[in-house]
Amino acid sequence: DSSESHKPDSVMESNVDAAEWKLEVERVLPLLKVHIRTDNKDWRTHYEQMQQHSEGIKSSLNETRGHLDKLHQEISRTLEKIASREKYVNNQLEHLLLEYRGLQDSAAEVKIYLRNKSSFDN
């Protein structure tokens, strides 16, 4: 078997002192740590930034939506008041407008009459 040919014939034993081994491990440990450099071009960084910005936008939207809803309600009430007052003013002035139009018509008739009369007198 090929798997048996790779097995050692005997067990390996270390003759290094345990204290020395610990010191050596402590000495080389910083060299064994994997340091991942953060690269601004790394897609993971961009993805995390997009998630952070998305959360910021969502929280701002929730806060802003409340303010906008209040503003919308206030504007709607104001527009209703304006429409109501406009209707009231129109109702109050309707008879005056009719009277004014009648006077304008009468004035126009008088002008025509006077123009016709002056053209006959000449």
Automatic annotation (TrEMBL):
User: Which GO CC terms are listed, alphabetically?
Assistant: cilium
Assigned keywords, A-Z: Cell projection, Cilium
UniProt cross-references to PANTHER family, sorted A to Z: IFT57/HIPPI, INTRAFLAGELLAR TRANSPORT PROTEIN 57 HOMOLOG
Membership in a protein family: Belongs to the IFT57 family.
Highest taxon above the source species: Eukaryota
The protein's predominant localisation is other
Q: Does the keyword Aminoacyl-tRNA synthetase feature in the UniProt annotation?
A: no
InterPro entries linked to this entry: Intra-flagellar_transport_57
Organism of derivation:
Nematostella vectensis (Starlet sea anemone)
Instruction: Report what the protein is called.
Output: Intraflagellar transport protein 57 homolog
Q: Where in the cell is it found?
A: Cell projection, Cilium
